[in-house]
## 1
Amino acid sequence: MAAARPLSPHLSVYRWQIQMVTSIVHRATGIALSVGLLLVAWALIALASGPDAFADVAAFGRSWIGTILLIGWTWSLAFHFLNGIRHLWQDLGIGYAIGTFVRAGWIVMIGSFVLTALVWACVLTRGGAA
Amino acid sequence: MTRQFRTPMKIANGLGSARAGAHHFMVQRITAVALIALGLWIVWIALEMLHMDYAAARALIAKPWNAVLMIAFLIASFWHAQLGLQVVIEDYVHAKGLELASQIAIKFACFLGAAASVLAVIRIALGT
C-alpha cells in the first residue's frame, strides 16, 4: 500500500522555476568541473614531463571533442562561479525577497552565457600556437 | 526519570550532524571565496597559454607568483571538489557499503589529483 501513495518531494507536481534550475545546475556543473580538474592536472603533469606529452594535451584541446568539452567546462565554470557568488551572498542573509531571489537566479543564468561568450571571443581573437 | 549529569554538548558530540559541526560548511565556503579570485586567475592563465609554445608556457607557470597561485588553485579546487562530491554521494547513494566505498574513493582521487598536479608545478618551477 505504501508504494501507491505519492512520495515527498512531489517533483511531478512542480512546474519548473528558476530556483530549481539554478540549484540542480549548480550540482551538475560542480560534478562536471570536478572531471575538468583532472584535465588541468593532466595538462600540468604533461607540461612538467616534456614537449611531446604537452603536444598531446594541445592536440586534444584542438580536436572537435576536446573543443566541445572545453566550451562545456567554460560554461560550467562561469555558471558555478556566478551561482557560487549568489550562494555566498545569500549565506550572509541577503537577497531572500522572492522578487530579488528570482531576479538573481536569472542574472546568474544569463550571465553564465555572457561570460562564456566573452571567454571564447578572447580564444577566437587570440588564436593559438600551442 | 534518571538524573542527567552529562551536559547536552557531551551527549551531542559524536552523534548525528554534530559529528563535525559546521566544519564542512565553513571549509566549503572558505575555499569558494578563494576560488572566486583563483578561478578568474586560472581563466587568464589559460588564455595566456593559448598563443604560447611549450617553452613559453612552461616559463609562464615557472614564474614564482604563478607557481604559488597555481598550487593555491589546485589545493582549493580539489578540496572544494571533494567537499561537493561528498554531499552529492551523501544525498544520492543510499547503499551503505557503496556509499562508504565511493566516499573513500572520492577522497583518494581528490588527494592524488592534488598531490600529482602540485608535484608537477614544483617540477616546472624548479626546472627539473
## 2
Amino acid sequence: MAITGLGPHGERASAPERVLLLPEDMTRARASGFRVAIVLHTLVSDWAKQQVSGIVGMLGNCGVAVIDVVDCAFTPEVQIEALERLIGEAPDAIISLPVANSKVVAAHARVAAAGIKLVLLDNVPTGLLPGKDYISLVSADNFGLGKIAAEGLSPHLPDGAEVGVLGYDADFFATNEREIAFVKWMQVNRPDVSLRVQRFPALSEVAKTTRNLAQAHPALAGLFVVWDTPAMTAAEVLETIGRRISIATVDLGREAAIGLAASEPLVAIAAQQPFRQGETAASIVVTALLGRLAPAWVALPGLAVTARNVVECFQTVWRMPAPREVLRKLSLVGPAR
Amino acid sequence: MPTTATADNDGHPRRKGRPRVSETAAPSLVDILNLVRTEQATTRQEIERHSELGRAVVADRLGTLGELGLVDESELGTATGGRAPRLVRFAADRGRILVATLDQTAIGVGVSDLAGSLLMEHHEASELTQPVSALAERLVTLFRWILERQAEPQLYGISISVPGAVPDGGEALFQRNTPGMLPGWESFPLVETLIAAFDAPVWLRSSVETMTMGELHAGAGGGRSTMLFVKVGKRIGAGLASDGTLFRGAQGAVGLIGSVPVTVGDRTGTLEAMAGSDHIAYDGKIAAEHGASPILADHVRRGGEVTALEVAQAAQMGDAAAIDILAQSGRLIGQVVATLANMLNPALIVLSGSIAQTNDILLAAAREAIYGACHPLVSRDLQIIRSQMGSSSGLVGAAIVATESLFAPPMLRDWIMAGRPQAHPLFRQVKDEIAQRKTIAGNIVRPPDV
C-alpha cells in the first residue's frame, strides 16, 4: 500500500527496503562492536514490546550490543534524565521515542551534539532537523492510518450522520496526523457527515471526554479514536450509558482485536506494524553506523483490518496467534468448555 | 531613530499642538522593544546604554511594555558583584504567527511564536493545479485546526510562502490585497479571504525567499550574513541573504536562475529544462527503457513510476546511469551558480530540494563545478552544503518574514501602544475596504469557481 502522508518536515516517505542490510553489511557491523541504547515512552504496551523485540532481534543479527532499554513512563522528565545519563555512557547510537514536543527538544539535540547517532521513532520534536540533530525518523504512515480508519468507518454511517472524533490534546506528530487525515477524508468523501471533535489531555480523562461528547451530541452514529487504548475506554463508557456507536481506531491491540471480531462496537482498525518498525529502526542504526546516508523519513504502511481479516492481520502484526476469544467469536474454534 | 508616530501614511491629517503622550512614547517603546527582542540588551542597564535614554524613561517604557505583555522581567540574571540584575526578556509567547508553504505538490502549515520559532508543523500532499479556492479552503481548515490547539495567545499575523515571485517591490508594511502571482490565481482574493477569516495582517513571499530566510535563521546559515540559497526541483530558483536580510530586488523577483540558457553537447535549453527534476525523471525513464539502468528498469518492471526521486535513490545505490544523470544536473546548476558566486562572494551556498537533500551525487557535481569556476578569493572559504531543513525552512522563513515586518519600526510604532498589530490604522483601513467590497459584490470573497 502506498504511503499517503508526508514526513514531519514535508519529506517524501522512503520504504523500509531502502535500508535493507546485506550479509556484508552485517559482517562489517559485527566486526565493529557497536553499542546502542533504546529509550521508549513505555515498555508496558504490546506495541512497545513488539517494537523492542524487532529492534533487539535485528541488532542481535548484526552483532550490535543493546546496553540499555529505558521505560520513560510517558514522562518528559524521566526521558530527559535518561538521555543525559546515556550521553555519559557514550553509546554509538540511541533509538528514542520522544514523549513530548518542546519539553524534550534540548535533551534530544544534546545527543547528536555529543556525537551519538540518534534515530527517532514516531515523533520529531519541532525544531530538530534530520541530518543535523537526528539520522532518521521511523514511523507508521500516520496520515494513511487516519485515512484507513475513515474508509473503514464510512460504510457504517447512515446519510447525514454525526461522527465524533476523540483526539489527543498533546502536540504529538503521530496522533495529529491521524486526526487531520480522518477529518480530511470525511470532508472530501462524506460531505454529508458532521464531525464533532473533542480531545482528551491524558488517558485518565478519556472517560470524561467521551461522556461529554456523547451527551452533547445524542445523535452520534460513529466515533473515531486516535489509538486503541482510549478507544476501548470510550467503548466501555458508551456501553455503560447505553449508546450503540460504531467505532474506528488505530492499532490492533488484544482487546481491540476481540472487539473487532465481534464487529461491535469496533468496526474498523488501521493497524501499525510495530515489529517491522523496530527491525527497520535497527537497520537504520546499522546503516548510519556504517557511514551510509539514511533517508530522513522511513514510513511503514498501515493495514486495514475488519472482522473479516482480523486473524491474519493479528498474526502479521504481532507474530503470534490471535487470542482465543477472537477465534471463538469468528467460529474458527469451538466454544469454550 | 524613528520619527514620532503620526497618521500621515494612513490618510488622517496630522493634528496641531502638542503631540499625544502615546505619540511621544512610541518611538522609545519601539527602540527598547527591538533591543530586547534582538537580545542586544537583556538588562535595564544595557537598555539605558544602547538606547541612550534615562533610567526613568526606560523604567516607564518597560512598565508599559510589561503591561502590554511584550516583555517579561520575572527572571534574575547572574550577579557581577552586588544584587543580581533583573533580566528583560522578549515575551515571544505573547502571540502566534500562522505560517504556510504552498508548493507544487504539497501544502505545509505551522504556527510560530513572535520570535519566529516554529511550535508545530504539518505537511500534506496537495496539487497546486487544483482551483485556488479549494486550496484556500484547505488552508483555512488547517489554520483553524492549529488555532484550536493553541491555548491563549493571540494571532499576530499570517505569512504564506507561494511557489512564484510576489511582485510588490517589498515596500508595503503587509499585503493590502492579493497580487497577481501565478496563472489562475489572479481571480481569487487569497489575502482578503485570510484577513476576513482570521482578522490578522498577511504577508506573501516566494518559496525561495522564505526558504532562504529559514535556512539563514534556523538552518545552515547560523552566524553568517551572506548566503546564497539554491532550490532544485521542477523549477530552479535562488535566494540571496545579504547583511543578514533578504535581498528582494526591484520587483521581488530575485533569483529566477531557472531561465538561464545552458548547453549540453548540441542541446541548448533553460537551466530548469536541462537540469530540473522533470528532466532528471525524463532521462531516468529513457535509461530504464533502454536498459542502461538496471535498478530503474527493475523498478518499472514492478509497476513503479520513475520520478526524479527514484533516479536519486538509484544513484545512491550505485546505478551508473542514474549517477550520470544527476552528475550532469549538478554540473549545469554548478556552472550557473558559480557565476552568481563570483558576483556576490557568499560565505555559504546551500542546495535544497528533495533531490539535493536525498542525494550526494548532485551536490558533489555542483561543488566541483562551482569550486572549479570560482575566483580563488571567492572559493577560499566558501562552503557548499545541502539543506537539512526540508520544507520546514519555508515555514520558519515565513515566520521570520512576519516577525521582522511586525517589529520593523515603521510598522511597530503604529500598533505598539495597543499591543496588537490589528490596531494598526492601515490594517483597520484594509479591513474596512474588504468589508465594503464584500457588501458591494456580495460573494466576492468566495467566487463560485470550484
## 3
Amino acid sequence: MQDQERKMKAAAKRLFDDQKVDVVVGFRKGSLPNSSRPYFARSAADAEHLVWNGFCTANLAAFLPKLFEKPARPKDGYKPPRIAVIAKGCDGRSVSGLIKENQVPRSNLIVIGVPCHGMVTSNKGAKAKKEEVARACQECVSPTVKDADITIDGEGRKPAKTAYARVKAFAGKSSEERWKAFVKEISKCIRCNACREACPNCYCKTCFADQRKPSWVSPANELSETIVFHMGRMFHQAGRCVECDACVNACPMGIDLRLFTQKLAQDALDLFGSTPGIAGDEVPMLNTFAQDDSQCFITDPEEK
Amino acid sequence: MVSVALDKKNLKKFVGAMLKQGKALGPVATENGTVLGELTAKSDIVLDYGNFKLPPKREFFPQCEVITRFDGTKVSEEPVRGQASVIFGVRPCDAQALAYLDKVFSDETYTDPYYQTRRDGALVISLACSEPGEACFCTATGGGPGATTGADIAAFSQSASVLLEAVSKKGESFLKKNTGLFREPTKKELQNKKTQGSEYAKRLSRVDVSGAPKALEKRNDSRFWDEIAETCLSCGACTFLCPTCHCFDLYEEKRGSASARIRLHDACTFPSFTREASGHNPRAGKGDRMRQRVMHKFSYAPENFGTVFCVGCGRCVVHCPSNIDIRETIAKVNS
Amino acid sequence: MSARGNPYVPVQARIETIVVENDERDLKTFRLVFCNGNGFSHECGQFAMLSVPGAGEIPIGIASSPLDKGYIEFTVKRYPTGLVTNALHDLSEGDIIGLRGPMGNSFPLKDLTGKNIVIVGGGFAFTTLRATIRYLLDDSVRKQFGAITVIYGARSPGELLYKPELRQWQQRKDVQTHITVDKGDASWKGREGFVPAVVSQVAPSSANAYCIVCGPPIMLKFAIPPLLTLGFSPETIITSQERKMSCGIGKCGRCNMGSKYVCKDGPVFSYAQIKAIEDKGL
C-alpha cells in the first residue's frame, strides 16, 4: 500500500507540474491516531501531504458538486476549476452518478483510481480495537474504479459477491419486529445532518427537510419528524446510493443506516437490474421507463 | 466544605438515596456504550467510562421542547416536565460547561425559565476522570480532570471507594442528609485524589487557548477562515455534541387553529442559520461560518462573559466527519 | 418584560386598522391595541417580536411614537418566501396577534438634547425613523432639540410610506423635510435622486448635529461617505442594524455582529461601533 501511496503522490505532483489541475481532492494524515481526513491539495508542495491507507474512509465525491458550483457573481473570464479526485471504487461510482446528474463536468474532472484494500472500521473515540475491515468494504462489489483517467497500479480487494443476506434476513422478520428495530435505531438520531452532508448524492440546494413553504418535516428530533427525514432521504437515494457508508461513518450516534441503504440497493438490483455507478452509460434508474414496465404496483399491489 | 467517602459496596444504597430525591440519571451500560440514563433501584452504575457521547447540557436545554402553546384563543406557557432531580456522573468538563450556560440563560435582564427551572431543580454530581480521551484538552481551557465548577458535589472514584466533596450548599445538604451512607475519607484516599488528577493532566493535549482571544483580533482575513473550513461539510455534528453550544431556533407547529412553539437546537454551521427572508445571508460562506463558530467560543464569549466557551471535551474533534480539529485551528490562529 | 416574567410568552394585541402604504401593496401598517390592558411602552428605535399563531415570530421596528397613546404601530413588508409576513398580511382588522417587547436599545435621544438632528432614511427602513420624527415633533418634546432635518427617499412615488404625514411635515416650519424618489412618474412634482446624492445636495450642517440614518445595506454604504464629508464623525452617525432573529433577548446566538447581539446590544449602533465590530471580524 505504501508503494501505491508513492505512485499516487507522484501522479498528483505530475498533474500540478504539467499544470493540468487546480485542485487534487484526496486524503492527508488525520489529527487522531489511526485516521486520515479529506484534503484539498492546491500545489505540488501540497501534494506531498497526500496519503493512501486503510483510514481513507470518506467519500470524496461529496466535495465535488460544491467545488464545481459556479459563483453567484462570476468574475470576467471565469472558467470552471480543473479538479482531480483520488478515488476508491465507491468514490468512482459516486462520481459516475454525479456526472450523469450533471453536477460535475466530465471534461474538468480527472479521476485517479487507487486500488482499495478496504477501509478499517471507524472507531470514533472508542478504545483502539484490532483493525478489521469495515463491513461495507467486505461486501463491496467494486473496490477499484474501472475506467479511471489515471490508474495507480496494484492489487485491490477482490470484489465481493453481495447477496444482501443481512437485508433479506431482516426483511423476513414480522412487520412489528422490523418497525421496532427501525424505531430503536432511528431514535438515536440528533438531526445533525452529518449523514446528508457526507453523502455525495445529497447536493440539493434546498433539502426537502429544510423547506418551509411548505414545511414537510420540522428540524425537531421528535420521533415522527426524524422518521420522515430519514425515510425521505433514503427514498431520494433509490437507484443512486452506492453503499459507500459515508453516512454511516459520518453519523456521530452510530446509527445503522447501512441496513436501509442496502435495502434500496437490493431493490434496485432485483427490481430494475441496476447497480448504480457501475456500468458506464446507464441512465439513472428512475429517470426512464419502457412500455412493458410492470404496472403491478398500481393494478395489483399485493403481487410480489 | 463537607468531604466524605462512600465504599463501593454501598453504591446501590447511594443510588437509592439519589432516587429518594426524585428522578435520577447516571452512567449506565447500553449496547451503544455508556450513556447518561435513568436510574432505577436495580441500576448498576458504571464508573469507568470515558465520557457520554451526548453532552449533559441536554438535560437542561433539551434538543426539542415545547415552550408555549396557543389553543386558538390564548397563549400559555408550557410547564417544564420530566426534569431530573439528581444527575450523577457528569464529567468535570461538562459540569464546567453548565456553569457557562448559566451565564447565557440568566442575565441581568432576562432569565430563561425553562433552563433555569431544570437547573435549580437538579443536584449535579460530577465524576472526576481517570482516563483521558484521545482528544481531551480540558486543562488548556481552564478546567481539569478533577475540576468542580458547575457541580453541586464532586465525586472521585478510587479502587474501593468514591470520594464526594460538596461544592455548593445544595450538595452539602444532600451529603448531610445521607450521612449514614458515608464515612470520613482516609489520608490515603485524599492523597490518591491529588496524585490521580496530576498524573492524568500530564497526558492531555497542549493547546494555547489563553492566547487565542488576543490572537483572534488580528484574524479577520476571510482567506484564513476559508482555508480552515475547506473540508467542512456544514453539518451540525460539532455543534450538537458540544457541551457549551447553546444556539437555538423557535419553530411554530400548527394543528388546526391551535399551535405550539418549539425550541430546537440550531447550529451556526448550517448555511441557512442567518439567511433572511429577503435571501440576504451575512454568513453565506463556509469560511464566514467557521470564523463565527471559533470567534464565538474564543473571542466573543471571553469579551461578554470573561471566559472561553470551550471546555476541551474533544467531542468535536472525534466526531467531525472531516476531522477538522479545533486544537489545530487555535494553533494556526496563534501562529 | 422583567426578569421575573417569562420572556417567551407574548401579550396579545388586536389589529385595529390596516393601512396599505404602497402601490405594490406589499407594505402594510398595522395599528394594534393591546388586549386586557397588558401592554408595554417603548422608546424610539426599539423593536418588538410580532407573532402570528401557527406561523411564527418576526422582529419588527416600532413605527409609532412613544407618545402615541392607546395603540402601537408596525409597518411590515410581505416577503414572497416569508412565512410570518405572508400570514400577517392575510389577517384582517379585529384579528389578534402576539407581541413580545419592547426589545433592543433605542436612539440615544436623551444624549442629544440641545443638538440639531438630521434624519436620513431610505425605503421601508424608515419605520423607526418615523416613530422618532413623530416623537421629536410632539409639542412636549420639540423645544428640547435644535433644528430637525429629514431626508427620506423611496424607489418611486408609489413606494413612499406615511404619505399623509410626509405632507404634514412638509407644511411645518419646525422641521426641514426633503422627500426624494429614485425615479418619479408623470404626476411627481418633487425631487428625483438617490438618497445619498440628496444628502450632498441638501448638505445639512454637522455643527452641533447628530445624524440618524437607516436604510438597506446598499444605501448605507453610499450615504455614509457624504455624511463624513459634511463633517459628521463616526460617533455622531447613528444607524440601526437588522439580522435574522429568533429569541430577541440575546440567548439564541443568531443575530450577532461580532461580539454584539443586534437584539440586545443593538439594533441601534453608532457608525463608530459598527466599524469597530467589522475590524475585529463579523
